[in-house]
Amino acid sequence: MALAIAPTAVILAVLALVEALSQQRLLFASLASSAFLIYLDPQHGTNSVRTLLISQLIAASLGFVTYTTVGVGYLSGGLAMVITIVLMILLDVVHPPAVATSLSFALRSGNESNLLLFGLAVGITATLVMLEKLLLWVLARHSS
Fold first, then answer.
1. Are 11 and 35 within 8 A, CB to CB?
2. Secondary structure (H, E, C), the chain
3. Distance from C-alpha of 125 to C-alpha of 44, rounded to nearest angstrom
4. pLDDT tens per residue, the chain (144 residues)?
5. pTM confidence score
6. CA–CA gap between residue 109 and residue 61 (Å, rounded)
7. Cβ contacts of 60 within 8 Å, gap of 6 or more
């Protein structure tokens, strides 16, 4: 139960921010998966702040670029997804929820403000990851 409470609270806070600034809630759905993975195993490389930031921002950017160049549709989504996967592997920043981010932006991006808002939401999520790691470190020091 504890594993579900923290990521749910994080994502609800991010969604409240999104709701206040935009009506594009589905663009941020992959952050829920990111939050769950991070709280499930915060020490795993897939869930590092570096991996989260780079993979999610690459995915959102690629989705937006394919949307604006190819247009909305399966070709745009497929290109964004494949390029995102290849770049995550090449850059050693594999974070599976980012694949959904690339699809979300490619299939329904809207405008540049959604990309900026998503970047802000990723930054907030990364900050919360760092706070969680700090808390784990403090708990480990005091329980020894």
1. yes
2. CHHHHHHHHHHHHHHHHHHHHCCCHHHHCHHHHHHHHHHHCCCCHHHCHHHHHHHHHHHHHHHHHHHHHHCCCHHHHHHHHHHHHHHHHHCCCCCCHHHHHHHHHHHCCCCHHHHHHHHHHHHHHHHHHHHHHHHHHHHHHHHC
3. 16
4. 555 666 677 767 777 766 666 666 666 678 778 878 887 887 888 888 899 999 999 999 999 999 999 988 899 999 999 999 999 999 999 999 999 999 888 887 556 567 777 787 788 778 777 777 777 787 788 876
5. 0.75
6. 10
7. 101, 102, 105, 115, 118, 119, 122
End-to-end CA distance of the chain: 25
Tokens standing for residue 70: 């190819």
Alpha carbon 40 to its chain's center? 15
Domains of the chain, by residue range, sit at 2-143
